[in-house]
Amino acid sequence: MIRSPLNWAVLGLLIERPSYGSELKARFEHRYEGLLQLGSDSRIYRVLTELEKQAMIRPMPEANPVSSGTERQPKRHYCATAHGRESFHEYLVEEMRELRRRSQLRARLLAVLVDRPLQALEVIDEIEDACVQEAIHTPLPAARARFPTDSVLALAQDLAAEECRLAMDPNLEFVGYTRRLFKALAKGESLPR
User: Fold this and answer.
1) Which of 4, 74, 114, 181 sits at a 20 to 30 Å CA gap from 29?
2) pTM given for the model
């Protein structure tokens, strides 16, 4: 099973359209804008090799296999397989489930500080700070031309900005709720219902 988000991100680009190594790297950097880092140039080829081993992608037949020797070697294009598309779908669904599990885990981990309410309040303040900083640095969806040059990127940016905006409200509500609970504990009061 593929665990690396890099591999899933590259597979997603190949589901979008067939491509070759250096083009994929450029599309990756443009699309994921620092959310994921490929590192070295060779990393894209290691990802392609891993995806091919997992039968998630396959090389496409060469369009012009005969070379005169003076021409450049044709670039090997890859495309997603049916198995790759199905696995990608399953991965996206599982990622949403994982977000919910992580949220539940965060709440249970915070409860560990029941006997240290002042420490919990410090953690809650830092969580709130992180939420606010993320909100400050999240760009708003840009006004788009009627026919954007990269509609997939524009949609990805819109979805990311909206996800961040929608996630912010419940996070801040959670911060407020936990702050009230731990303040009551710090004062020796019983927990409000």
Assistant:
1) 74
2) 0.70
